Amino acid sequence: MSVDIEAWYAQYAPMVHRRCKALLRDEEEATEAMQDVFVEVLRRQDKLEVDAISSFLYRAATNVSLNRLRTKKRKPADADDALIQRIAEAPEAEERGLAAAFLDRIFAREQPSTRVMATLHLVDGWTLEEVATHMNLSVSGVRKRLRVLKAHVAELQEAA
Amino acid sequence: MSKVNDYTIERVHLGEASEAERAAVAASPDALERLEALAEADARFQASHDPDEQLATIRRKAHLQATRDAVAARRSRLGWAGAGAVVLAVAAGVLVARPSLEPVEAETAHDGRAKGLGAALVVHRKAEDGQQVLRNGDLARAGDVLQLGYRAVGAAHGVVLSVDGRGAVTLHYPASVGGSTGLQRGGEIELGHGYQLDDAPRFERFFFVTSAAPIDVAEVVAAAEALAAEGQAGGGSLQVEDLDEFTVLVRKESR
Predict the structure, then answer these.
(1) How far is the alpha carbon of A58 from chain B, nearest alpha carbon, in Å?
(2) What is the ipTM of this complex?
(3) CATH class of domain segment(s) A5-159
(4) pLDDT at A95
(5) CB contact under 8 A, A43 and B65
């Protein structure tokens, strides 16, 4: 699809930045992550298939932020922060181990990211129904995916 | 009743919410308060993030990333072709392996043609009693201040950068990726600033690429980053198409 990046930025950049900052808790990091979201939109616009722009960008902001957390392995500031970090470091069900693959999923054909689901449900407090609607999945599908990731997060918790 | 999530409030703020979502926000004093705060948050964001600057940065990053992808793809193709060429050269007995840090000719094009008195990169070491020319393979130390210069004979545009033993790429000319690559004519032209060597180990290798036409600086930087990532910065070529390439490798010794 052809993307009017100026229009997308004008309309959604504040939301994207807020989302990144909520997860990264750092103004500068959030600005860089916000830029990276729009960079990926530009780079992959030919492959993008987006029905709801705000929903797509909110997921993308979550995914890019988790990816940055995964790379930086920062020291968590509190319990919520620690949970976000553990989710960021958890493997996807079909993990290929590369940041590029991670971004490919969210920006190309929109394969649902378990980490994004986990962040929405476990960190942001969304109901399973809300997560399912946002991710275009069934509630049972979300529950199943989260079960695997929850087990991994618990393992990480025990190991910490 | 569960707490209204942030995204729903964003949707109401954006004017994209359904009637049910708007009703949920309207029924929650907490959600209404968070909704009202978004207008102020938008204003703060706009005040601290100039949209023109942000979009320029986003485009520059996207271009750089696309260039990196293209360079990586080209290097991958050339890698296979180069491997084939090496096999043929060894079979013909014309290739002698050399360590990656062995000095290469200071003035050579990437295709190996000697450039004679053509364009050149000049590296001086500043000293109390003047300047000393550093030639390919000369030794220098962390803390030495180098003055870079070029001769633009036959070239209208150029880019000067260096890669150190840690793989860090430093752009020396132009001053930024978006700067003009136009070269000055008239003998040796010094860049407007000195360059102090840091404690990166082994070497600092300077590259001067030239062309008759303006150069995509991002592509050259990406090629240098790719070379460094491959561990070939001490001896490999940037392999940027249609550009002549000159290098000077300064070996590092610790103080």
Answers:
(1) 8
(2) 0.77
(3) mainly alpha
(4) 45
(5) yes
